[in-house]
Amino acid sequence: MRTTTLEFTMSLAQQPQEQEKLVNLEKQGKNKPSPKGGKGCGSGGVVVDKKKYTVKKRPPPKSVPQRPNDIYISDRSNFKAQISKCQKLFESGDFSEIFLHGIGSSIPRAVNVALELKTFYQGTIDYSVNTSTIQLIDDLIPLDDTTPPSQQSRKVSCVDIRVFRTVKIP
Q1: What is the pTM of this model?
Q2: Within-domain flag for 137
């Protein structure tokens, strides 16, 4: 299980200095915000020339070995189907805990699934949350024959939520 402590490395006294540096970089044209908003949006600051490459994102690695009570939450799956899968695991009696895993934009959905389960079971279950950051690798596929293939790495936030029973059900 990956665990990480959230750290805030910048003190309040350093923030105005950092903001001043960013303003100076923007004036020089070196720190342009991306079209999606923010500075880089998780791309790690690497700018890919779209005229030379197409980006193929690799799927994130799953925890090894995958257990039957591991549920990987995604934005593409039906929300109610994910909740019913969790409910079936609890109601089968085989598992007293399940593990929800969410990466990137599916983190809010994973948290919502855990909260829905807690509401559905009316306080007979609880949860613990671990956050971490993983590094993903993207393949850069050249659009012409003269450009060599390449790779880029990026960091993505992830959450692991352990949902467990607090009351034994006979």
Answers
A1: 0.65
A2: yes
